[in-house]
Each structure stands twice: as structure tokens, then as C-alpha cells.
Amino acid sequence: MFPRVILKGTMFKKSQQKKRTSPCNYKERFFVLDTQDLKYSERRPGKKPMVKGCIELHRIKCVEIVCSDVPIPCNYKYPFQVFHDNHYLYIFAPDNDCRQRWVRALKEETKSNSLVAKYHPNFWMDGKWRCCLQTEKLATGCHVYDPVGYGLPHDVGQRMVIALQDYTPLGDDDLPLLKDQEYILINSSHTDWWTGKEGAFMVRDSRQAGVYTVSVFTKAPGSNGEKNPRVKHYQIRQTETEEISFYLAEKYLFSTIPELIHYHQHNAAGLITRLRRPVSKDGGQWEVDPEELILGQELGSGQFGLVLEGRWKDIKVAVKMIREECMSDEEFKEEAKVMMKLSHCKLVQLYGVCTQRSPMCLVFEFMENGCLSEYLRARKGRLSQDMMLGMCLDVSEGMAYLESSNFIHRDLAARNCLVSKNNEVKVSDFGMTRFVLDDQYTSSQCSKFPVKWSAPEVIKYCKFSSKSDVWSFGVLMWEVYNEGRLPYENRTNAEVVESLSSGLRLLKPRLAPDSVHLLMEWCWKEKPEDRPSFALLLHELASLSDL
Ligand code: ADP
């Protein structure tokens, strides 16, 4: 009897990493589920599809969605898992409906198999299960597996919760809450049952004098498998060595609490979730108190004025002093609130704005290794292929985040990226050109306009988009693989515009492999819609780095 096809479609799959050393990558595959197997193949235009994997259905022990709290580095964002033999296959569907169809169909076909009693609702990643923190990949699951139901159960029962902030009722149906008081939750079917969102956190005094606790709100499944919204508390501990360090999760030590918090805002590192959003009492957190800001030596100067080293609440920061005639102040103050909400480990974080001081200043995360173009030039001849690809990957990650936040950079270039103490590259100065008052900079006809990094539609009609950022990213990749050389070194802006319109492009850098050069050329397609998105670039670069 021939097998009958049940479902087919394109999805992404993560490499199964059957050996510890095998690479982690995400590939687009065409999946076919029939009454016998789950098969996936590679489809290339003009070529025969090539079968890359086949799992006999009777080998499958569990199929379930994955509840994840980490960003997903491929285009499709709805993961589910197929546990077969001793391997976990993670598949990413384009939307929730599609995922639901696949999980339902696979469960239906495998319901009479010998199935697991318990499964892991979150990913296996970096040597541990994100749900229960067990470090053995084949460790028994932490959540009861339901071979017919879909997703996670909604029954919740009664739970204790702690108020993270005072709440004054807005209507008759509201309950007043007092910070730090415990409440019993009897119905959480409405997921926004309190004002918090995943990763909302605060640092508070704990009951013990002199000890601080970090309380964080999460909806991630707990170790007993329950998926209830709850508040988790972590005590900030101190080492007993001579030089005191603070930590939440053992391995990550910091000399100050703000540094510790800042780290965990970007990395869960043992916590149930990273600390995503501070819960503030007044919402005016973007204003930096000038009393708390200590200014130090000069780091450099930019288009807005001097950049100084500084300290703010015991963290090292970079402070941009804004010369008055350089920036449209009022507009910027509004936008700063938006920019502060952008938070990603590959973006240089804006901590706040100090408007009570003249000149106004902006307080940023400190980047020990300065700007990327200088960094490249200083290491000329000593940069490995891995390092160069890693830099492009870092920038594409930061930009994919901006793209997904619908935020346009407008001035992406190596000079606007900075390098951290651990040599990570982060994107800086996003959106700032909108506040420059210097005409020489803002008009594409003028000398300071970054013509050599600009897409044709920007030069012609000032039409900025994430796709014009993609063009600039291509030039940035070119700068990386030319070790910080300036693009079109001996040509004027006018000459560059002319050669672009006759279809010429920057030449392949000597150090760039063909695969990377192809990506650059893709970024420099005349029509914005023909260029890849940052999400796709990130995916492509990630798969190159795994080769
Ligand atoms: P602008 O945006 O005003 O043109 P830049 O961002 O180019 O200013 O900054 C000028 C110089 O100051 C940079 O080349 C770099 O050396 C230094 N700098 C800027 N921001 C930081 C930072 N966050 N950490 C460390 N150094 C910085």
C-alpha cells in the first residue's frame, strides 16, 4: 500500500546536533508528512529536490509545541519539537495556525506509539534544558505529555503571587494592590491579569537587612511543568573573597549591582528569563539625575560634540555632550523615550538623557574597544575569517532587532558601530541623524552626507527604510573585509552616484569569500524589494559561520 500524504509545506529546521561537535544551524526545508514517514528535502530552483532526512513515524516519541523565551534566529518563529529515537528535531513554522496543523497531524499519526510520559516544553540549548535546567539532554521531561491535546493545559488552580508595585483601582472591578504583599490568584485566564509583562522586574530590599532581591515576572513553564504567570525572586549574593563581587547565578560575577542588572537585562544566564523591563513607579526613568553622573576624560568627538568617559550609578558610561546648535532638542527628548526602550545585546544601550544640565547629554553603555572602523584598521593583517564573519553576524543581529522593531537606523556604517571589551560589535547612533541641525549633513547633495553608504533611493529621494539600511550593511561588510578601508577612497560623492547609476558596485574585497561577496551584492540590488531582510541576512550569515 502506498503511503498517503497528510501535510506538506516549507518550514525551517534546526540542525539536530546528534554529535556534541556538530554545527548549530537553521535550514529551510520542504516537509512532507505521510502515513509512514516525516521527510524533509532541500528545494533549489531548477534542481531536483534532495531528500535530507526521513523519520519513520513509529520512531516518534513526542510531538509538541516549544514555549520559548529566546529570540529565534530564523525567519519562521513558531517552533515545535519532534522527539524521535534519541534526538530532538526542532521545526519552525511560519505562523501559529500552521504549527497547530502540524502538531495535531503528527500527534494523530503517532498516538499509538510508545510515547514519553513527560517532555520538555522549552529548548535544549547551550548544554541544558531551558525549562528545568537539567544538563543531560536525554533527562526525563519536566511536563506531562498529552498525546492528544495541543500546547499546554490552561487549568491553573490557585497560586500565590506578590505585587511588584502599588496599584490604585481604576474602576469598581479592580482590586487595590500593595507592593510586596502576597495575593492568591484564582483566575489567570486573562494573561495580562496584572500590569506586568514577561521579564518585568524590580530590585527591592529583601526581608533580610542589607540584602537585595530581584523579583521578575514570567510566564515560562516552571520545573514542575506548570505554565502559570508568576513572580520569581532571586537574592543578590556576594562572594566572600576580599574583593566583593555580586551575583545572581553563580558563574557571573560583577563588582556592582547595576552592572549585574545590566548583564542580566541581556542574558538570562541561569534566571528563568532575562530581565526585560524594569517596573518603574513614575515612568520617568529616562531622565538622568545630574548629581548621579560623574564626568571623566575625553574619549573623542563626533558630530554633536564631545564624548566623555563617565560613571553613572557606579557603571562606566560614555556621555555625549550635545552642543546646543547641533541638535533639535525638543524633538530629541521625545524620541529618546522610544530609543531607551530599544534594548538588545547587539545595540549600544542608551541609558538615559540628562536634560537638566546644559549642554544636554546622553548617557550610553561604555564600549571599551571604541569604534569599529578604527578597531579594524588597528588590527589590519591580523583579523581571521572567523572574526570578520563574527563582526558581520553581530551587526546583522542588532539590525534584525531594529528591523523587527520597525526602527530605521539611517546611518549604518563601521564608524557608527562600537566594539565591547569582549570584542563584540554593537550598533550605535541609530536614528540620530534625524536630529542633526547641520545642513551639510542632512542633504544628500552636501559634503557630509554619507553618500558612499547610501542606497540609490536615499540619494535620489531621501527614501529611508530597513531596506536602505540593508544597502548600508552591504557597505559595512565591505569595510570589515577590507580591514577598515574607506569605500570608494579616491572618488568624490558625485562620481560615486554616477557609477552606481550605471550599475557599478564596490569590488569584491580580497579577503571576502565568494559566499560573503554574494551577500554584499544582494544588499546592493537597485530595487529595495530585491534586497534581503536583516532576518534573512542573519540566517544566511549564521549558516556560513557553521560551515
Ligand atoms: P557622534 O555620534 O556625535 O558623531 P561618535 O559616536 O562618532 O559621535 O563618537 C565619537 C567617538 O567617541 C567615537 O569614535 C568613539 O571613540 C567614542 N565613543 C562614542 N560612543 C562611545 C561609547 N559608547 N563607548 C566608548 N567610546 C565611545
Automatic annotation (TrEMBL):
Annotated source species: Dicentrarchus labrax (European seabass)
Query: Which segments constitute the PH domain?
Result: 4-111
Start and end residues of each SH2 domain: 179-279
Protein's name in the database:
Tyrosine-protein kinase
Q: Which UniProt keywords apply?
A: ATP-binding, Kinase, Lipoprotein, Metal-binding, Myristate, Nucleotide-binding, Phosphoprotein, SH2 domain, SH3 domain, Transferase, Tyrosine-protein kinase, Zinc, Zinc-finger
Instruction: Give the protein family.
Output: Belongs to the protein kinase superfamily. Tyr protein kinase family.
Cellular component (GO) terms are: cytosol
Q: Which PROSITE patterns did the record assign? A: PH_DOMAIN, PROTEIN_KINASE_ATP, PROTEIN_KINASE_DOM, PROTEIN_KINASE_TYR, SH2, SH3, ZF_BTK
- The entry's ATP-binding residues are K320
EC number(s) on file: 2.7.10.2
Cited InterPro entries: Kinase-like_dom_sf, Non-receptor_tyrosine_kinases, PH-like_dom_sf, PH_domain, Prot_kinase_dom, Protein_kinase_ATP_BS, Ser-Thr/Tyr_kinase_cat_dom, SH2
Keyword Ribonucleoprotein listed: no
* Molecular-function annotations in GO: ATP binding; non-membrane spanning protein tyrosine kinase activity; zinc ion binding
Protein kinase domain: residues covered: 293-542
What lineage is this protein's organism placed in? Eukaryota, Metazoa, Chordata, Craniata, Vertebrata
PANTHER family linked to this entry: TYROSINE-PROTEIN KINASE
Q: Does the keyword Nucleotidyltransferase apply?
A: no
In this chain the SH3 domain maps to 156-222
Question: What biological processes does GO assign it?
Answer: intracellular signal transduction
Which top-level group of life is the source organism from?
Eukaryota
The cofactors it requires, by name, are: Zn(2+)
Q: Which reaction does it catalyse?
A: L-tyrosyl-[protein] + ATP = O-phospho-L-tyrosyl-[protein] + ADP + H(+)
Q: Pfam families this protein is in?
A: BTK, PH, PK_Tyr_Ser-Thr, SH2
